[in-house]
Amino acid sequence: MGTSPTNPGFGIYIHWPFCTAKCPYCDFNSHVRHKKVDQQRFVEAYLKEMAFMAALAPNRTVTSVFFGGGTPSLMLPETVDTILQAIAGHWHMPDEVEITLEANPSSVEARRFNGYRAAGVNRVSLGVQSLDDEQLKFLGRLHNAQEARRAIELARETFPRLSFDLIYARPDQTIEQWEAELNAAIDLSADHLSLYQLTIEQETPFWNLREAGKLIPPGNDHAALLYEATQEITSGRGLPAYEISNHAKEGAECRHNLVYWRYDDYVGIGAGAHGRLTTNEGKRATECEKHPETWTGRVEKTGHGMINNELLTLEEMGDELLLNQLRLREGFDPARYEKIAGKELNPERIDDLIGYGMVEWLDGDKLRATSKGWLVLDAVIADLAA
Fold first, then answer.
1. Gap between the Cα atoms of 133 and 135, Å rounded
2. Whole-structure pTM value
3. Greatest extent of the chain over all pairs of C-alpha atoms, in Å
4. What are phi and psi of 186, to 5 degrees?
5. Which element (helix H / strand E) includes 114?
6. Alpha-carbon span 180 to 111, nearest angstrom
């Protein structure tokens, strides 16, 4: 059951907020607990918040479920099974729904993988990040390259679909080094790769190191060359980019992420989870309390952990649509923007951006960013939205 630009998806995102250790580049809502996490308490909170969200978005057909984090592979298979059964109880969930679980190679066990598969998970996304031991240490990962390869092999044996992440544009990384690592990754037969350039986020250890002059990421020109090499290799080997950082064999695109990028509706459940829901009033943006134990307390007290549930303005919806859909190679219909935002895109700005090679028309009626435009997408979006 695939989605398409004319067949909207509906996703369920479940956030598991705990990790064994915090990576030095990570600014996600993830937390380390030295005491054992009370999974039963969290399960009960998930189910309670889910019931609340189901009342906000009733009678929907789920196209994808995504367990993100944090490290969802720290969840017991029984926890995943209980949550999936609850989702099926609240919404219509066809047999072919995509169910993804993120996993770290360091927390992978065959027994646990088999348990996730038995619960219904049919796609796993592994946080590999590198196939080089020295670089894995630099990135603060708890696994080595051999463990990563073993986790990939185990995932291929267990799940119908497999994706894994790599981080490139690391300090001192040459184009030749990245080309060799990327080709080695493709040799491992995933049907989907997420390839992210290293970004230095505020309030992370890497930010502090850069500020102190102890970490120097590649300059923009070198990063652009690494990006271009990435596009050339993945396209040549049958995993072209369908989104700025995501590459897949035909038909293996991540359906859940397409829900985000096509600006469809999704429910966000768990500490720090976000959602977008269309109601009779318009599109609502939901956001849950980030701190895990504070979130569970709010849910137990009020039935949900939301700290924001606001109606988006026409301008905000238009901006969000551009921000998401211009990430996609398939482009988007400007008529949808006009319907959502209540105004047309400026044709002169579109012509200017076409002249600069930043956007192009696809099939006469869809607008998309070019590969050149993807390199400066924030500026392209700002220009179109002005």
1. 5
2. 0.94
3. 59
4. -65, -30
5. helix 110-119
6. 33
What's the CA gap between 92 and 58, in Å, rounded?
10
The alpha carbon of residue 349 and the mean position of all alpha carbons in its chain are separated, in whole angstroms, by 30
Supply the angle between the helices 220-236 and 175-187 in degrees, to the nearest 10: 30
Tally Cβ neighbours within 10 Å of residue 262. Answer: 21
Distance CA 77, CA 343 (A): 48
**In angstroms, rounded to a whole number, what is the distance separating the alpha carbons of residues 386 and 381?**
8
H helix or E strand, kind and range, residue 167: strand 161-168
Which domains, and CATH codes, for the chain?
Answer: 10-259 (3.20.20.70), 313-386 (1.10.10.920)
- Rounded to an integer, the average pLDDT of 156-167 is 96
Rounded-to-integer distance, Cα 194 and Cα 79, Å: 26
- In the beta sheet, which residues pair with residue 163? 125, 192
Q: Supply 343's token pair.
A: 């105004």
Where are the alpha helices (H) located in 120-254, listed in sequence order?
A: 133-138, 145-158, 175-187, 205-211, 220-236
5, 333 Cβ separation under 8 angstroms: yes
Tell me the per-residue pLDDT of 212-225, one tens digit each, with 9 for 90 and over.
999 999 999 999 99
In whole angstroms, what is the distance from residue 156 CA to residue 71 CA? 19
Dist CA 73 CA 113 (whole Å): 9
**What per-residue confidence (pLDDT) applies to 6?**
61
> How many other C-beta atoms are found inside a 10 Å radius of the C-beta of residue 6?
8
Residues 184-198: tens digit of each pLDDT: 999 998 899 999 999
Q: Residue 26: what residue type? A: C
> How far apart are alpha carbons 342 and 331 in whole angstroms?
20
Closest CA to 83 of 58, 49, 56: 49
Residue 27 has pLDDT above 90, yes or no: no
Cβ-based neighbour number of residue 375 at 10 Å: 17
Question: With left for phi above 0 and alpha for psi between -120 and 50, is residue 331 left, alpha or beta?
Answer: left
- In b/e form, how buried is each residue of 19-38, taking b as 16+ CB within 10 angstroms? beeebbbbebbbbeeeeebe
Rounded-to-integer distance, Cα 41 and Cα 375, Å = 44
pLDDT category of residue 5 using cuts at 50, 70 and 90: low
Which pair of structure tokens corresponds to residue 53? 């969200």
CA distances from 369 to 40, 87, 354 (A): 46, 36, 9
